[in-house]
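Objective 1.3, modelling of assemblies. Example input:
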Amino acid sequence: MIKTQNLTKIFQTDEIETSALNEVNFNVEKGEFVAIMGPSGCGKSTLLNIVGLLDNPTSGSYLFNGVDVSNLRESQRTGLRKGNIGFVFQSFNLIDELNVFENVEMPLIYLKMSASERKARVEAILERMKISHRRKHFPRQLSGGQQQRVAIARAVAANPGLILADEPTGNLDSKNGLEVMNLLTELNREGTTIVMVTHSLHDADFAHRIVNLFDGQIITEVKKQMSEVII
Amino acid sequence: MFKYNFLLTFRNFRRFKSTFFINLIGLSTGLACTLLIYLWVNDELKFDKFHEKGDRIFQVMENREMEGTVKTTGQTQDFLAQVLAEEMPEIELATVVTPPNFFPSFTLLVAEKQVKGVGKFVDKNFLNIFSYPLISGNDNTAMTNINDIVISESLAKSLFKTVDNCIGKSVEWQIMDLTKLVTIKGVFKDLPDNSSEKFDFLLTFDAFKDLMGIKNADMNWNNSAPFLTYVLVKAKTDIGQLNSKVADFIRLKSKNDQHRTLFLKQYSDNYLYGNYKNGIEAGGRIEYVNLFSIIAIFILLIACINFMNLSTANASRRIMEVGIKKVFGAERKTLIWQYFGESLLMALLSLLLALVLVILLLPKFSEITNKHLELLFDARFTLTCAVMVFLTALLAGSYPAIYLSGFSPIMLLKRQFNSSLGELWSRKGLVIFQFTISVIFIVSVLVVYKQIEYVQNKNLGFDKDNVLYFETDGKVIGNAETFISEVKNIPGVVNASSMLGNIISTEVGGGMPGKVKWKGKEIMMANSAVNYDLLELLGIEMKEGRTFSRLFALDKNKVIYNEAAIEMFGLADPVGKIVDGQEILGVVKNFHYQSFHELIKPYSFRLEPQAGTNILVKIRKGEEQKTIGELQKLYQSYNPGLVFNYKFLDQDFQAQYVAEKRVALLSRYFAALAIIISCLGLFGLASFTIEKRTKEIAIRKVSGSSNWEIVLLLTGDFAKMVLISILIALPVSYFLVSRWLEGFAYGIELSWFYFIGAGFIALITALLTVGLQTIKAAKINPAQSLASE
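Predicted structure (tokens):
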């Protein structure tokens, strides 16, 4: 599903050139659950952004579902992202002015789905995320765990094949964190590919494979046996 | 999508209430201003546009070269219309008309009923050229007989209480000592408000010629005359070609007069483009139309700038929303449409509020503009509103829409959202622009106010106060001397006299134009035929010689000039000298018989007691009401049933400055609005800046900064912006007010006070606007701010 070759990303400010990714070769198969780990500033989020088609690499290639997407324009990336990739963030990133239902519904609107279909889809997801009773509430009226569940609901609303999660439990206590990881695992089991950036070894244990980044390069890659994966 | 965007917009409005209200108030006031000015401008532009054949109606104008300059006038000879129609195949019809104010108002008599009205003499083609539709009668036959008259429906109602069955009835008209019996041949609909022509009835030009003894054979092309000539050209006539044909018309006819050129001017342009300078069109009322249109645009622009500034400043508060939308598939154009939709909704809400404001303010605005303005929701107005809303939304919302949607999702998600230098400068630049306009408005208000004050208080060279005048009509005409003697006997009357015309006129100034021959040249000069005591009544001071006196029978052959005339003649010791066959009896000091726009020109007084068309009465101060009552009784004892219509000389004086006073009043309101809207924007921007700098304030305080230093720091930035505005505005406003003052021959000196004063007002207002907020911000406990960060 994801195949990068010599992926390099250089950030250039007025005088300083920073190499965030340095010839990274990173592959993810359909249905995999991959955790990316590493110290702050090692390039985890940069890799996730490029994989999530939020940014282009400076050089190297990126094949998404077999299509070279390394040099797409912003509008082309947006088009490809829609319905194919879902995002979950550490700080939930829900829109304060929209209630739970509307937040989850938002990606479906950009897919130009009919109102009745959207309604049915959102109702089902909220039910599944056990947040249906909060459908009229606004983000500020929810706990952190509830907010992240809404964020996951939003990420899966369009049935994407890939979910990118950037420190999804970073702002949660252990109980809510576990709930979120269970949800992601469940989605993965149902066939959704998941790439997750995390600092937490505990969370990484839910993944099939752990990729360690350091100074913009993959230094180790640990593929776990299914028996080692937390289920 | 629409519902979703609408919901989001509505909730954003609710969340950022102060921004919403600042935008709403600013935009609605700006739109209300624009709509009011639109109504006024629209009314002005519609003047004289109701004539069905308007695009083919032209006035024949004349350029007269005199002493190195060209004077443009609409005054032509009485026979020009007829000759042009005969000799120019392009002309379908032509008509001659007596000019406005040529006669004082007429008195119309039907049996015992007497009614005053304004009339003009026109030839038979008049009703076929212009669209003054007859309710009864026939356009083609109504003015064919010498003693025909057509009257307005209002006049018909005044005379007969009905407009029905008026045709064929007889009416007697009277003016000065002239009377005539005429027959009603038509009743026309009352003139629309947007007609520059004002008359109650029309008489035939043949009747005028008969009265004046003008014969058709009297065609002296060398003479000048005061009549107006209008032509209806045939369809598809090339006006440029026709103009070149008529240019030399008089030159060819007169054979020896090489200084007069004719040209055709679209009749409907006369109202707005009435001024000429040295033979070239030099504006007129259109200047005020343009001025106020620009003011409207600027006020709306100031309000739009608030919207632009607050929306972009607000962007950081909405960064998350934009970022998430982009991540989940919102395309840039979708976001642009959403934010444009937001400004469209804002503009629409503002329009609704603006319409309420317009409805509330329209009566007062109509009063100021001296118009009957109505808010009619017709197709044109609705379309104007729609265009205005769309343009406002586009202007106010385009920049925020493009700006907000332009960030990459990465930047938004990483919150790498720092105002760029360019953005900061453009925001500051817009505030500077707002305050520049405000300072220009303030300078203009101060200068216009001082000039009006100057005009009101400057010594005119005669005493206009407590002098009333009325026309010598009815039986007063034949008994003027007796009547004046009786007026003088009324307690409260200081003096009474009479004169031909008036000492002040809004049209051409006092007096009548007349020719004086001097050193082989003919000089046009205003002159007044006056009665004894008039100069004394008006307090016009003698410089040399003496005034007219009953003790000297030969005074009737003598003349009194003003200083300007003597200067022009170049006479050192003028009294007793002969000019154009008349001995100079005395010299009066210069006085302002025209408005302060004009330099004092040569003027002469002749003694003609019988020529008086107006009786002037000087009343003792404090006894006006009682004395006017006595005057009315005396007048009505001569003219029972006739309304005693009088005017104070001061009214005529004030009428000379109607436009300036209107500008003064309106510019005061608009300047206040401009500064209020600008301050609203500044208030919003200050709140936002303080919110953004909360942490910085706290750190500075922790590091030892005093509250006062924090206030100085925060207000300093805004003060700098206003100071830059002042620096830009001062030369611009100097240029603008200097140009305005150039229109006055007598005006105030521009002093530094107006400019420094205006800058000071703007600066203090701005500092007050941001001051309270900065004091509040400086007082916040730093521990609290840092904790919340």
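The mean pLDDT of chain A is 89.
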